[in-house]
Amino acid sequence: MCFRLNSTASADQSSMSSGTDEDDKEDEAAGGKFTAELPIGRDRIPIVYRPEYGVRFLGLQKLHPFDAAKGGNIYRLLKTNGLIQTDGDVYAPNEITLEELLAVHTQRYIDSLKWSLNVAKIAEIPPLLFVPNCFVQRSYLRPMRYQTGGSLLAARAALESGLGWAINLGGGFHHCSADRGGGFCPYADITLAVKMLQSSGKGIERILIVDLDAHQGNGYERDLMEDRRVFILDMYNYRIYPRDQHAKLAIRRAVELKPHTDDEEYLRKLKHCLSQSIAEFEPNFIIYNAGTDILKGDPLGLLDITPEGVVERDEFVFRSALERSIPLVMLLSGGYLRSSARVIANSIVNLRDKALLPTVQ
């Protein structure tokens, strides 16, 4: 069952400049500034990707189960299926800037990423601590900054294109908060997207975060603890990382799953709790964190959802938004099987075939 949990209340090493505690306070007070350089329109498919999403550092990425080339693999499969014809059909994001990052992150946290030891802990790849930080910036953090920029661009596309949806073939770094990274998540793209939408002047007053990654989304939950303009539906395996009890206070509707939950139970709980959440909160924007670490056999998610279950899950979330004319942005988040890319591509093609991606033929 679901239950209510109420809150108690091109950049490289040199570009991430140092600052003092006083600078941190000024940045937090100013709220940062989001750029909006790339035009949004109906002439493109609102899918966001660029080849720079791929993480590569001399094979060390293979020491983590995360598929560092997942976005590129999905992109190629979508081309094969005819959903994307040319590279010009989709949006290619800019790398997020330091100024944009400081809309949420503290200067102290940004500075901490100049130390390879700290990045190794976030990426969960211990040998990274021996790699010079200039290579860490270029090969790991820069791709993550492109993906973070992609999440902001996708949110803008969902809101401004008039199509009502967008998909970033990356992002969903839900374990990262303003002052702490973890779980392969170095930048708080979900919090950044929320702040950008709230300051857009487009009347986005009620944002529903639907987090269906197998892990609790503790990063943005810590950031948004006191923000009643955000409703968090988080559905996760409660026996795995991060088990963040403090962050749980931000969840408005929690769906805690036992290991090896199957399709029938998972989909039944999702359909009931998502419908409840939409009816109660009446959101005018949805951020959908669509992790595929729920798949059976995933070494970190430990759930037993089939590929068909993932397809049905995504279809239900998109249909729920489309039927109510609620703009939705989808982020990929976790997924640690090599087969995950094909499952995601098949799900996106199914959304097209079910007419849940307006204008995509």
UniProtKB/TrEMBL annotation:
Primary localisation category: nucleus
Alphabetical list of SUPFAM superfamilies matching this protein: Arginase/deacetylase
Record-listed E.C. numbers: 3.5.1.98
InterPro entries: HDAC_classIV (IPR044150), HDACs (IPR000286), His_deacetylse_dom (IPR023801), His_deacetylse_dom_sf (IPR037138), Ureohydrolase_dom_sf (IPR023696)
Cell location: Nucleus
Region (Disordered): 1-33
Domain Histone deacetylase, residue spans: 64-349
Residue stretches of biased makeup (Low complexity): 7-19
Biased composition (Acidic residues): 20-29
A biological process from GO: epigenetic regulation of gene expression
Function: Responsible for the deacetylation of lysine residues on the N-terminal part of the core histones (H2A, H2B, H3 and H4). Histone deacetylation gives a tag for epigenetic repression and plays an important role in transcriptional regulation, cell cycle progression and developmental events. Histone deacetylases act via the formation of large multiprotein complexes.
Self-association state and partner proteins as the record states: Interacts with HDAC6.
Family of this protein: Belongs to the histone deacetylase family.
Listed PANTHER family: HISTONE DEACETYLASE 11, HISTONE DEACETYLASE HDAC1-RELATED
Protein name: Histone deacetylase 11
Organismal lineage: Eukaryota, Metazoa, Ecdysozoa, Arthropoda, Hexapoda
